[in-house]
Amino acid sequence: MNQFIQSIPARLTRVTSGGKLIKEIDGLRFVAIVPVLIQHLAERFERNTPVSFNAPIESNLSNFLAHRGFLGVYIFFVISGFVLALPFASHRLRDSHKVNIGTYFWRRLTRLEPPYIIWMTIFFIVFIIQKNQSFMEYLPHYLANITYTHAIIYNTWSPFNPPTWTLEIEVQFYILAPVLAYLFFFVKNKILRRSLHLLLMASLVLAQQYLQLYLNPYSFSILGHLHYFLLGFILADIYLTDWKLISKSTWYDLLALISLASLIYFWSWNYELMSRIAVLVSLFLFFISVFKGDYVNRFITNRWIMSIGGMCYTIYLIHLPFSEFFIRLTRNLVFTQDYTINLIIQLVLFIPVTLILSGFFFLLFEKPFMDKGWPQVFSRKISAMFKN
């Protein structure tokens, strides 16, 4: 049994297209997915609990922290900007092989779409049966979901799996990324390139602020979030050119804590300009610190942390529908009238079960599609079946 447990992280390790795994990125995915889990479970707990708390929920520090889960989405956006920029930036800055655009889009499609279609189909069927809804009435919603256009068409969350609106924004960025990477990394002079990039980011933030692009319907599109992806571009630039100049230090561990606290403190739904700028700066410092800190880097690159982060796509796809089911089973668990204690109990039950289920479904529905040769293997198997 112990041998099996020790083998779990290796079994859950992602398969990457280039064969090179950046450990810190999977660790950052862990940092991104955990607050999302906490917020969505906390919201459902607050809506369904029969407990009369001994103090208003809004005044509770635990409630404040739990509802900062949206920061995880921003971290995911920065990660996407970083990861997608790397091959394009490497070609321009290091003269590595040129990215084949057809292969780039085909890989995005074959890697992400199959598990997405599988889960959205399951949740669509469950929604129709459980809520006794009309199949034909919600079929357009399902078709919009699997084509990543639901938020654009309906200007609202998916009725089957609300968090997928952020995946639609990711897809919009995937489409734009090659063009943006070409324009940004075309400039060879490092100082000029980064100055132009910062100017573009500043212009975007100002335009979002004064045109209120952070509000619906724009917040459901790349218009409200592009600056986070571009922050990932800057980090990729530094990673490829200046990374060796930055030495690891325990000072970065302190900076990681400060920048994380700053993220939590400054982020709010009020979208004040200075707060939004502070969030961007904090994200930048946090990413650098994760790579260059001593203790925080050890934590982030722990194989268990990495394995959880590596299966974050599956976790993200299933966690909210599962939380709706889960809270029905646990909402009557009452040990005290203290909000914090009750929430911790719910999370201690919810998170491990979610991770175990996600690990199983990751191996079943996601990891097989990480092998870029799976369409050819699948095609050969189908051909063999018909021949027999």
What does this structure look like?
This protein has helices spanning 2-11, 23-48, 61-66, 71-94, 101-130, 135-146, 150-154, 165-185, 190-211, 226-241, 250-266, 273-292, 295-300, 303-310, 312-330, 339-366, 374-387. The protein has one domain (22-387). The chain is mainly α and 388 residues long. Helix 2 crosses helix 14 (303-310). The mean pLDDT is 91. It is globular. The two termini are 40 Å apart. The chain has 17 helices and no strands.
Rg, alpha carbons: 22 Å
Provide the succession of SSEs.
Answer: HHHHHHHHHHHHHHHHH
Low-confidence stretches: none
The level of helicity is over 70%
Distance separating the two termini: 40 Å
Overall pLDDT? 91
Strand content: under 5%
Walk me through the topology.
Elements: H1 2-11, H2 23-48, H3 61-66, H4 71-94, H5 101-130, H6 135-146, H7 150-154, H8 165-185, H9 190-211, H10 226-241, H11 250-266, H12 273-292, H13 295-300, H14 303-310, H15 312-330, H16 339-366, H17 374-387
Helix pairs in contact: 1-14, 2-4, 2-14, 2-15, 2-16, 4-8, 4-10, 5-6, 5-15, 9-10, 10-12, 11-12, 15-16
Record keyword descriptors for this entry.
single chain, globular
Short account of what is shown:
The chain has 17 helices and no strands.
